[in-house]
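To start, one record:
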Amino acid sequence: MTIVRSVTHTNAGHGMGAHWMLTGYQPTTEVNDNIFPAAGSVVAKMRGPNDPGLPAFVTLPHKAQFSSAAYLGASYSPFTPDSDPNLDNFQVRNLRLPGRVSLDRLDRRRELLSSIDTVRRDIDSERLARRA
């Protein structure tokens, strides 16, 4: 871990400067979203998580502007709890099943997804589908 206490840039545009600092690329026009992946997204893609059960890239407490993975894909964007961990009622979002989804139902969904993936792989590997 490295703590960076200050950074500077020579760009007068706040958004452009933020993009430059978080991605390493200076945009030529004002930007509202990542043009290039954030440094954390690049590390997540190249190195992966320290523990397979944990996310490789996290931003706290909310997602920072220009911290997305851009063209690397959403799987390399940061995990964000969207809640302040200092609060007494802090909960990490999306770690509980919705009230109407039981664990059994979730398992059936996983099985269905797995069977669909298997069919697709079989079709791809055996070249059963033709282009029209």
